[in-house]
Amino acid sequence: xKIEILGTGCSKCKELEINAKKAVAQIxxxxxxRKVEDIIEIMKFNVVSTPALVIDxxxxxxxxxxxxxxxxxxxx
Length: 76
Known about the structure:
The chain has one domain (2-75): Glutaredoxin, CATH 3.40.30.10. Helix 1 crosses helix 3. With 76 residues, it is an alpha+beta fold. The chain is 37% helix and 25% strand.
């Protein structure tokens, strides 16, 4: 599973990345967590507000700081 955190470096974006890594640590398998800060790459996802959570190329959340538990529910 490829998880991408879209954001330009704000505190919420950084915290979402931390929460995503915590969620991945609680499940089995290999999962990549990648932070995307390049605005051109972010625009390719048609995301208007950050932070955004993208799983396997599909935008799952935008403009919201998800908790570790919320991310676990999304990725299960």
